[in-house]
Design a protein that fits this description.
By secondary structure, the protein is α+β, with helices and mostly antiparallel strands. 43% of the residues lie in helices and 25% in strands. The chain has 11 helices and 9 strands. Strands 1, 2, 3, 4, 5, 6, 7, 8 and 9 form a 9-stranded mixed β-sheet that branches. It is globular and about 55 Å long.
Amino acid sequence: MIRAVINPFRVIGRRTVGSLRVTHFAQRAKSVVPRHYHDTATLCALLQGNARDHFRYRTIEFEPGSVIYRPPGEGHSHEFGQDGMVAIVIEIPSSRLDDDPALRFLSELRFEQNVPMLANVAQLLGSLRNSATAEADLEEHCFSFLTVFNRVGEEASGSAGLDRVRKLLDECSTEKQSLSELGAIAELHPAYLVNAFRKRFGCSIGQYRRRRRLELAIKQIWNTRLPLSEIALETGFYDQSHCTNEMRRHLQLTPAQIRGIMARDL
């Protein structure tokens, strides 16, 4: 097994922020990278296309919205699907993992699908593309993305009723359930549900639902050629203007800008 640096088919954007290196990249359709390992840890989110990683005892299938963390020295190989792959990766030196208490949770191979991080990634890519972005601002976006598994771990504990509500909001974000309906699912009084949800997830039920709609819209923007007006309706917004206003308010980006930062010609 060989040691390798991250050297993709096409680098769309790359910057080094402190000890972190951020790369927005594309891989060719139906290509393969033989078994190798990296000296640095890597946190990678797949944004377009699909891929498969082979580890010693496990094979992981990727789709848009998936995120994987590979610790330093973790041997693996890659296969990329018929449409290739576009992703973003943050490389973290092992010394940073040892010295930074905020990153101690990054200790072993981790993989999650449908993680609420595409909005963070859109902001990170927008900052990466803008050469005028201050290093401190770019680093803040990096750390927001890096803590995705920490957030997942925090959310995994607690009331099973809250987990059921969150799962419903994840899977049915384009629908609007009443508080009474959500309370029945959680087996909690609606007033208690509202307070418990905010305490557990750090936002209101309405804010969580809006964030998931934004995530779903971004996924469609990056993985289809549908008109933005159609995407807005399919993802639960009243119209394209509503979708645009929500993205501009929460992400400081419009749907057209988000589509513009993604590569199409793999």
